[in-house]
Amino acid sequence: MQIFVKSVAGTSVVDVNAATSMEELRAMVAAAQGVDAERVSLVTDKLLEGTVAECGILAEQTINVVLAVDGGKKKKKKKKVHKGPKKPTHRHKNVPMRVLKFYKVEGDGEGTEYKVTHDRIECPHPDCGAGVFMAVHKDRQTCGKCSLTYVFQKK
To answer: Which positions fall inside the Ubiquitin-like domain (predicted)?
Structure first.
């Protein structure tokens, strides 16, 4: 009788009789297809031992040959344990009437005139121009527009 063998390499026809063992069938498939037949299955049942008649293979039936493949899903990684607390994020602090920090007004208005002076220096960089003041920190003065920085010298 003839049976059809379907594998990755394609479909081929093998002549067997009812007394042929599964080991002989695997050898015939390996010779016909050029691949090692590691697992021979009929629809969903695995055919491991016995003869062709015992496994229930009929004439002109299709047998699937499946090859073993390495691989699969990898092992799940462990979650990292962080040792220290999170770094606090910068929070913007709103200062009411911020423009009063840039100028100083002197004089009482009675008998003397008001005198307005800059409390903070303007940035001397040519890109900034007038009206751009430098921020005052405890150890430096910095321009927020052009990043010009003056560091205070400790004596």
So the answer is: 1-72
23-51 pLDDT per residue, tens: 787 777 777 766 665 655 555 456 667 78
CA dist 54 and 34 (Å) reads: 26
Question: Residues 143, 134: contact at Cβ < 8 Å?
Answer: yes
What residue segments make up the domains of the chain, in order of their start?
2-66, 98-151
Using the CB atoms, write b or e for 18-31: b if 16+ within 10 Å: eebebeebbebbee
Chain centroid to Cα 132, Å, comes to 43
Tokens of 110: 């009675």
CB neighbourhood size of 142 (10 A): 16
Per residue in 58-92, pLDDT tens? 888 887 777 666 777 888 889 999 899 999 999 99
Token pair 């840039």 in the structure block, residue: 102
